[in-house]
Structures are given as C-alpha cells and as structure tokens.
C-alpha cells in the first residue's frame, strides 16, 4: 500500500485519504462571468508532471495540500493549507448584488 | 524445404501485401487534415474521410504505434444500454456499424454477439435498470429487466446465494452486447484508409500546435513542421496534454483503470457479466481467458503501473460472482489512462480554435464508440458542421450546464 504523509497524523495508508482536486484560485463569485465560473467548477489543468492539490484524511476530516508527480506516481511533499492560505476565505454574497 | 521457406520469407518478393504506409515515407509539407493519434478513433476518422468524403490528403500521426494506446488496453466491450436519449442513440448507431464492420473491411474483426448482463443488488439499482430498459427499448435498443430465474439460465455458473452479502435481485439483459478484437478494429480502419491514400506516420510525436488568428495552421512534430487545413485530436489518455498545446483547457481528469486476465479455461461463460455494485465486470474471451476489469485508481495519474490493492479488490469482487475462479492464475495485468469527464460522456466536436476538432474525454467508453465516432467526426471535418448525433456532446455543453449524465450506466467503478 502506498503511504501518504499526513501533516496532522503522520504516515498513513493512502486508502485512508480522499483526493480533493487541484489547487487553483477561485474567481470572485460576485465579479466573474458565468463562463469563468463554469471553468472554475468543471475544467481542470490535469497536468502531466508536478501538481499541487487538495487531499483529505477521511478518518480525521483533515484537509491539507500535497505536491505530487502525476507521471512517476511520487508524492513529493505534503503541507498544511495554512502555508498557502494566511487569511480566511469569505464565501458570503455581497449585499445588494 | 525449411531453407526454402526462410529464403522466401526474407526475400523482397515476399508476396504479403503492405497494409500500412511504409515507415520510410517522408512527411509531406502540407496535409488537408492531420489526425493526432493512430488509435481506433483516429484510424476510423481517416477511413470515413477518405472513403465517403473524398478527403484523402490526410496524415495520421502517433508518437507510438498504430493501436498501441488505449485501443489495446480496453476490455473490448461493445454495448449501447446507456441512460440518456443522446447517449443511447449514439452508442446504438455504433453497435449497428460494428455489426457490419467485418464486411465493410473485408477483414475479420472477430465480432461476437454474446449479450451483456448487468446485476442489480439493491432496490435502487432495480429501479434504475427499469428506467434504462424503458429508455433503451423506446430508442430501439434491446434491453430488458430479467428475474433471478432468467439470470440463472443465462449464466449457470454465477454465484447466486439468497443470503449472500450482495444478493442478486434482478438483472438488465442487453442482447445487443458484444465483443470484438480491438486491435483488428484499428488495423481494419487504417488498412482501408491507407488503401485510399491516407498516410500513417508512427513514432511521430506532435510537440506543438500552430495557431494563427484563432485558426489552426499546422503542427510541429519531432520529424519537422507540417502545415494543414484542419486538425483532429484523438488521443484518449492524454486529451488534456494535447489540447493544452492548442491552448484549450478541458473538463477532464485522467485516472488509470486497471484490468487483468486469467489463464484460459474451456468455454463456460457466454455473456459479459457486470456488477456496478460489487465493482467488477467479467467475460470470457474466445481464447478462454477470463477478463476481469474495471478498477479505477483513487487519484489522477498518467502512469499505467498496476497496484496490488487494485488486483486484490478486483479479484475479491470476481470471486463474489464466480467462486470457481479461486484457483485461477493471473496471466496478465495492465492499466489504461481514462480521461474522465464530469458527466461520464465524451467531448466531440468544435473547439475554441477554428478547424481544430476535439475527440476527447473517452473515459471508459471509447472502444464501443469507435465506428460511430469516426463516422461523425469525419462528417464534421468534411463539412465543418457537427452532425445531429454528436451535437449534444460538444465542449460548449458545460457552459450551458447541459451535461449528459451517464454516471450510472458505465460498468467500471469510479
């Protein structure tokens, strides 16, 4: 079994984790047009090479980030999301829009 | 006599007909159509263009060899018992073309109409099978809901305990289900295309797509740059990578799908048997091997390695249905890269780049669609207008939120 190193729980079997999609910047839902939003929701880079993506340790519901090589199937690095997100992301709609 | 035979085999006068473009052929400066990918789909598109649309100045390029990608890695299942009107109509026409393909080619693709049985292990599955059967029958596809007794008659070797972990409650019997030799499909199409002047260039990798004023003008390959009027990308497994060269992003995630075959046995299983619930599908080839398929890796990857985890889960599922396989030895295991779309339907048609046509997102449903996809894509390239049958599958559907949901009708586990 492949082992993934969880930043919270240490090395665990990869079957304990759920792949959570590519890390990409969310367009501002109050500003972007419909096509941009569709691309954010459905379209992917799906790169062959080193990618940054979300993973979740399902037993502890802990979300974190990983760098992984999609050609060699190697996990390069796992790290807490706080390395990338240093402030709270607001999802609430803007008044009057 | 042995020496005579050897001499004859090696002599230049050896009478075997060359089916494909000789490998020494130089690339021309210009082609009307460049098809990226010499799998079943690319070969079929070239075939229909050259035979029915009079377009013969075509190059089919492949970084590997003819039919060496996912054409050789699928489990060769042909069926049309999907769920949506668009999906069922499309695959139905593909099965019809398959029925006559050996005659069309004058070349045996070893088509066998064995039927396909999908098993329901829950009330919800029975309800969805009833729905599929109704949609299928309405569109002229032979599907029917069958009870346990009928299942027992169709597949006498199937394990059907009343108190098993996954009791079999009913089945969806699809009499149109079939199989064919997948390599022969690619060879037959390419042979027919080459006879009409199409050039096959193997070991020719496309490195970039040249675009000027929003219109494709050529491709850069490892053997030089060529100009062309239009490009078709038919590269299942690397759809996103090739589309990116043309500046196109796709709603695709690529996952390996693993399968395996056992040692050969005497013929004892006629139809394909599939269980979406237990996550396995099994059929016996005409050589006697049991093909066990359909385990998707749990994360995206461009690597066709096999894993023990997946072999264990596939084997456990296969034994649930056919315990007599417990002593079987595995002969081969492999994986193919499946370009999964959010709605489990392919992407065919126009792209944001003029004269650049997409034949992508073939997930686990590409082989069965080979003939109809080739025929409709050829019409699209020849006329510039998407035929009615594939119009709903265009990339634009995502922008309109008109996905074609076939998630429940694919046999592989995801």
> What's the CATH architecture name of chain A?
2-Layer Sandwich
CATH superfamily of the largest domain in chain B: FAD/NAD(P)-binding domain
DSSP, total strands of chain B: 18
Structural class of chain B, please? alpha/beta
| Helix percentage range of chain A | under 10%
**Shape-level CATH architecture of the largest domain in chain B:** 3-Layer(bba) Sandwich
- CATH fold-type name of chain A: Folate-binding fold
Mean pLDDT across all amino acids of chain A: 93
Identify the biggest protein-protein contact and residues per side: A-B, 22 and 23 residues
Main beta-sheet strand count, sense and barrel state of chain B: 8 strands, mixed
Any overview of this molecule?
The complex is a heterodimer of chains A (97) and B (414). Chain A has 97 residues and is mainly beta. Chain A has a single domain (3-83), classed as Folate-binding fold, CATH 3.30.2270.10. Chain A is 9% helix and 38% strand. Chain A has one helix spanning 34-42, and strands at 3-6, 10-13, 17-22, 50-57, 62-69, 74-80. Chain B has ten helices and 18 strands. In chain B, strand 1 (30-36), helix 2 (40-52) and strand 2 (58-61) form a beta-alpha-beta unit. In chain B, helix 2 (40-52) crosses helix 10 (370-383). The longest helix of chain B has 16 residues, at 123-138.
Provide a concise account of the structure shown:
The complex is a heterodimer of chains A (97) and B (414). By secondary structure, chain A is mainly beta.
Any chance you could write out the topology, listing elements then pairs?
The complex is a heterodimer of chains A (97) and B (414).
Chain A: E1 3-6, E2 10-13, E3 17-22, H1 34-42, E4 50-57, E5 62-69, E6 74-80
Antiparallel strand pairs in A: 1-2, 3-4, 4-5, 5-6
Chain B: H1 2-10, E1 30-36, H2 40-52, E2 58-61, E3 77-78, H3 85-99, H4 101-105, E4 116-120, H5 123-138, E5 143-146, H6 148-154, E6 170-174, E7 178-179, H7 182-195, E8 199-201, E9 206-212, E10 215-221, E11 224-233, H8 239-245, E12 253-264, E13 272-275, E14 280-284, E15 289-296, H9 308-321, E16 330-340, E17 347-350, E18 356-360, H10 370-383
Parallel strand pairs in B: 1-2, 1-11, 2-8, 4-13, 11-18
Antiparallel strand pairs in B: 3-7, 4-6, 5-6, 9-10, 10-11, 12-15, 12-16, 13-14, 14-15, 17-18
Helix pairs in contact in B: 2-7, 2-10, 3-10
């Amino acid at each position: 079994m492949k082992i993934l190193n969880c930043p919270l729980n240490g090395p665990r079997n990869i079957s304990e984790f759920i792949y959570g999609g590519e890390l990409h910047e969310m367009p501002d839902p109050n500003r972007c047009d419909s096509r941009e939003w569709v691309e954010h929701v459905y379209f992917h880079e799906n790169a062959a090479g080193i990618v940054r993506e979300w993973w979740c340790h399902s037993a502890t519901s802990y979300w974190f980030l990983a760098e992984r090589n999609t050609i060699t199937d190697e996990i390069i690095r796992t790290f807490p999301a706080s390395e990338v997100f240093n402030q709270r992301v607001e999802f609430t709609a803007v008044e009057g829009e | 006599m042995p020496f005579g035979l050897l001499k004859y085999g090696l002599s230049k006068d050896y009478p075997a007909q060359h089916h494909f473009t000789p490998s020494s052929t130089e690339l021309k400066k210009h082609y009307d159509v460049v098809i990226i990918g010499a799998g079943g789909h690319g070969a079929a598109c070239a075939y229909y263009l050259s035979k029915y649309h009079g377009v013969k100045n075509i190059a089919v390029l492949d970084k590997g060899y003819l039919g060496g990608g996912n054409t050789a890695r699928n489990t060769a299942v042909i069926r049309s018992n999907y769920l949506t009107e668009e999906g069922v109509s499309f695959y139905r026409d593909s099965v019809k073309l398959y029925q006559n393909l050996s005659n069309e080619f004058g070349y045996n693709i070893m088509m066998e109409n064995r039927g396909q049985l999908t098993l329901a292990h829950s009330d919800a599955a029975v309800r969805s099978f009833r729905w599929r059967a109704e949609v299928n029958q309405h569109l002229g596809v032979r599907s029917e809901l069958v009870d346990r007794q009928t299942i027992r008659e169709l597949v006498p070797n199937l394990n059907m305990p009343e108190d098993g972990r996954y009791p079999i409650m009913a089945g969806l019997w699809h009499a149109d289900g079939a199989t064919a030799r997948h390599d022969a499909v690619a060879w037959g199409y390419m042979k027919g295309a080459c006879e009409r002047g199409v050039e096959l260039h193997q070991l020719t990798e496309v490195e970039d797509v040249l675009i000027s004023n929003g219109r494709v003008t050529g491709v850069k390959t490892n053997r030089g740059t060529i100009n062309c009027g239009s490009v078709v990308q038919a590269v299942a497994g690397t759809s996103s990578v090739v589309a990116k060269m043309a500046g196109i992003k796709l709603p695709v995630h690529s996952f390996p799908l693993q399968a395996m075959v056992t040692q050969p046995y005497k013929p004892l299983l006629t139809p394909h048997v599939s269980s979406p619930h237990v996550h396995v599908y099994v059929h016996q080839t005409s050589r006697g091997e049991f093909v066990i398929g359909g385990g998707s890796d749990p994360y995206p990857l461009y690597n066709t390695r096999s894993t023990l985890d997946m072999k264990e889960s596939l084997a456990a599922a296969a034994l649930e249905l056919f315990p007599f396989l417990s002593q079987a030895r595995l002969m081969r295991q492999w994986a193919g890269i499946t370009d999964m779309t959010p709605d489990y339907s392919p992407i065919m048609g126009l792209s944001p780049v003029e004269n650049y046509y997409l034949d992508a997102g073939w997930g686990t449903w590409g082989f069965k669609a080979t003939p109809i996809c080739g025929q409709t894509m050829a019409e699209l390239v020849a006329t510039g207008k998407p035929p009615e049958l594939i119009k709903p599958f265009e990339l634009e559907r995502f922008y309109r939120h008109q996905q074609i949901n076939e998630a429940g009708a694919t046999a592989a586990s995801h």
